[in-house]
Amino acid sequence: MIARYHAIILAESVGQHFSPEALNEVVAANIGQDSPLNLLNSVIHFDNSLIREAPAYIEEQHALLARADDPRAMRAAFGRLTHTAQDFYAHSNYVDLWLAARGGIERARPEGIDGLDPAILDSPNLKTAHFYLWRDFIFYVPLFQRFARKHLVFPNSHEEMHLDDPSRGPKFYYAIAAAKQRTLAEYRRAIQSLGAERAADFHRKHRE
Length: 208
What we know:
about 0% strand; mainly alpha
């Protein structure tokens, strides 16, 4: 998912709970997951059908958040885990499965999606996009981009499946709505792991 939409999801789902400065730290950690060093880390981006490994990464970040003494570390862990959780909806067929169960896109509005539907989360048909730099770089080369996206899209590839931005059509808005629900759910879980005092620090900028 493009960085600006990660930021929008955070602001619209949990932004009201953080001071502006604290929210900026969460957003920075979230968007930082798209750094060049993390480009090929399929776990972080919920790619390559790592249906077990990516959730394990989210669990790892929750554990770091729960035991962190520094509020900045809490916010960084939350930013990292929400990036992965949000990418799940943009890089998987979750939206397709949810729409199929409800009779198609004509019968369901984006705001009606359930981003935490256990039947879909546990479905054997759930899969995420496959991204391989050695193959998929061609979709980002300006001279070949148009031709490649029209004629060289591989089945189950990131280019075929992703819902990273509005250019992908109406399903993008279902992915955004589901990602907001998941972000709020992950926030509530994070708060439960913190005592009242630590939760208060989590929400405001750390004071030196």
